[in-house]
Every structure is written in C-alpha cells, then in structure tokens.
Prior knowledge:
39% of the residues lie in helices and 28% in strands. By secondary structure, it is of the alpha/beta class.
Amino acid sequence: MIKPKYVIIIDTNIIRNSASDEWDNPLSTIGIRAILDFIKKHKLESEIEVVIPEIVLEEILSQKVYLINEEFKYLETLYEKYKQRFGLEGIDIHKYKSFDFYTFFKNKCLDFMQKYNLVLLDIPDIRANEILKRCLHKKPPFQIDTDKGFKDTILWFSILHSCINNSDTRIILATGDKIFRETSLNEEIKSLNKTGITIYQESNEILSQLSSELEVDKRFKERIDNIKARIINEKINFILNEVTKYSQERGYTIHDFSREYEIESYEFVSIHFVDIQEKGDDYNITANLSLHAKYKKGYLVSNDDMYNPQYYSLRKVNVKVILNFDVKNDKLKISKIVLEQPFVGLNYMDTGKFNYMVYSN
C-alpha cells in the first residue's frame, strides 16, 4: 500500500463551526467537502488522506445527540402546554424521544466516510498513568490554568500513534484550538515524524498551501497538454473519418465552376482547442478544425478518344467539433459536428427534406 504524502486530521471544532449541508450527517460540512472536492478535482487521492479521529467522531456524535435531546425537552414542554388546546393528546411523544439517535447519526457518518474514503483514526491503547502525568505536570494539551485538556490529550496520543509507521508523511491538523500550536507539541511529534505537524484553522488555508506545494496548476496544465497531444497524434484520423461520414450522409458538396463535386475525404491542417473541461477521467472538448476537403475533379480533353482525366483538388473548410474523451477507457466520442460558415463554394443538400442551400461569402 502506497503511503500518502499528506494526512489531514480534522478536529472537533472545525466540524462544529462549519455548516453541514445534511442535517443527519454532521461530517458533511462545507470545510470537509471543500477538501474532498479539491482532492478529487486535482486527482490527489493517492497523495492526500483525510482522517477523522475516533475521539472527534464520538464527541461530535455526543454533541449532536445532546442537542436533539434538548430540543425534545423543549418540544415536551410545548406539548404539555398545548396538547389539550389543540387536541394533541393522542400523540405519543415519548416514542420519538426513545429513538436511538446515536446509532442513526453514527451510521450516517460511517457511510459518508466510506463513500469518500475518509479514514477513521482509532483511539490507541493508552495507559492511565500517561494521561495522569501529563495532567499533573500541565503538559500540553492540558492547560496550565485549568484541568481542561483530556479530550485534546486523547486526540494528541492518537496523532502520535499514527506517526509511528508514517515518519515521512506530512501531518496537517485542522483545528481552531490554540493549545496545539504549542512548540513543545511540535518538538514531541518530531521524535516520530521528521516533518513535525502543521496547524491550520480554516480549510481554505490548507488548500492554498497544498495548491502551492503540489503545484496543482502545473499538473493540470500538463494533463491538458497531454490530452491535446493525444487528440492530435492518436485520434485525429478517427475525427476526420467521422467528419467525412457526416458530410457524405448529409450531401455536402464542393461547388466549383458551376459543377458539384462530392467530398471524398478531409485532410488535417490544424486544430484550435477552444475549451477543455476536466471531469475525473472524462474530458469535454470543444475544438475548431481547419481542414482541406478533398474532392475528385474532372475535365474534358479534345481528342479522338474523348477521355475524361481526373485529379484531386482541395478546398479549405472550418469544422467545429464537440468531443468527449474517456481517458481511462481510451474512448473518444463526437457529440456534435458543425461545418461553419462562410463556406466558400461549399453546398449542402438535405436529402431528407429535399431543399437545397448554398453557403458562400
């Protein structure tokens, strides 16, 4: 298994302070989704791992269930106050209160994590005296002026344990808790991970830094340049054949000195890529082609045999194509072909409707 270059660990306050777009899934926050979208967009799944510590998940779930129970208490108060006035005596409100919200929300979170490849960082086996010593000596994450810091210490031990076999992985902690910025903590983690730990408070700070370090814009340009090269070097003949088939099926002809000539094929001149949209392994491409329409031309020679020699002539035309390139399966589809105006001497016979149109300058 390839180890990721970066591990992003999400703390409770980052989840709690960011709005979730799903009421039943506290992990589906704007911040977390921004990180996941960034990873997918820039194809960084093998380089970046997003981690939810077990202690963080449990704290989020307990807070969520607590708020639900508080809302039920308020609802019970309203129910007792108004049940007779509005004839609500038949509603068994206690049935809804007994619902197992903890399991409900946890399953939603675990399903979300599985779907988007988030990793659950288990709480390691920690001896009680290790926590007690840190507490008594006010060693961070325990705070000097209070006894607060138990949950943060469990989180810290989880992070330290994850570093044992990941000495070269860059550890990023997304947290709004200033205690983790203590220099002593960074020095402690460097005994296990030579890069130490980097603290960010906002997801956009993380993404800005990763964009710079991983050169995502440069990588994107390289992917697009590779797509352009593959279209020209590997797929252009397929496109020319499809354009030929398209024009022949629709009766396109070349008008040359009062005569019509059937287009036999097209020769490639140049291509201009107007737009390329990347969606995973699919690329939606709009391009303008400059082509030579090739047609067989004949003329009479005055002699006894009255034979009709023929030769090929070329007429430059512009063609717009809209393509879909499935890179993973190496399949190119053409969704639209447009022979663009003005067509110098290029005629079109719509055989289905029996009407004749001439496009010219």
